[in-house]
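My current task is to audit a protein record that another person submitted. Please read both lines and tell me whether the tokens look consistent with the sequence. Do not assume that whoever made the record got everything right. I have pasted the whole thing underneath without changing anything:

===
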Amino acid sequence: MVLGMACALFAALAYGGASVLQSVAARRAESGSGLDPRLMVRLARSVPYVSGLVLDLAAFVASLVALRTLPLFLVQSAVASSVGVTAVIAAAVGVRLRGREIASLVVLGAGLLLLATSAQPEQGRPLGLGLRWALLSSVVILGAAGALAARRNGRSSAPALAVLAGLAFTVVAVAARSLTVPTPLWHGLADPGLWAILAHGVLGILLFTTALQRGSVTSATALTFAVETVVPAGIGLGFLGDTTRPGYALVASVGFLLTIAGTLALATHHLTLAPVESGDQPTAR
């Protein structure tokens, strides 16, 4: 459990830092029409974006390790807390946080602490072959929905793109939690659950990057991780055998609610990370 908790904490820190780097790069990039995969090609020349992707990859691997032994409601809540990391980093570079945002960070931390004390470490329950194929095929539905949402240019499309990114990452989390590691390892290449992780991971990054380009970094991050936390938690508890320690169900519930409340409170806090004129200070608005 110690390794899993360490990996979940690292994932939160890395995802939070990656969101800031990717937001800066996405806002500098040329905006395309619709859900444009070429955006990833243009951003591949950006050092901040590539650095963010490296952090994303490290966080992704860490979260996969954590999901091998820890329930989805804990790991995904830890990932959601990266919006707090994003806010702290933004504050470190000059964005003013108000008392409301500071209180939200405290609530977020308290919720994670309660979840950590209540989680029951154990392996996830494997999904049937049909369900794993369904997870893989859902990439077509989410991709089509993302393309439709992206056709609405401007900030109005950012929330929908962020929610769809959260759903894509939900599939990644569920598939990873239920994934069985075969012997020999190369047999895993025939598992649709593995390809579901890869396909939805790429789609989620594209959707999330497009949302960052069009809207607030904190709002996009918070919406994505709120969806990525609530939906997998319910699936894990209902279908994958996730449980709390005996007698800690109420503690886990309170911790989960505090984590989501802190995340959503930060979602209304718009952080301006773009360069400002000389003599001005970045500010929250």
Observations:
- The radius of gyration is 18 Å.
- The chain has one domain: 2-267.
- Residues 137 and 196 are 8 Å apart (CA to CA).
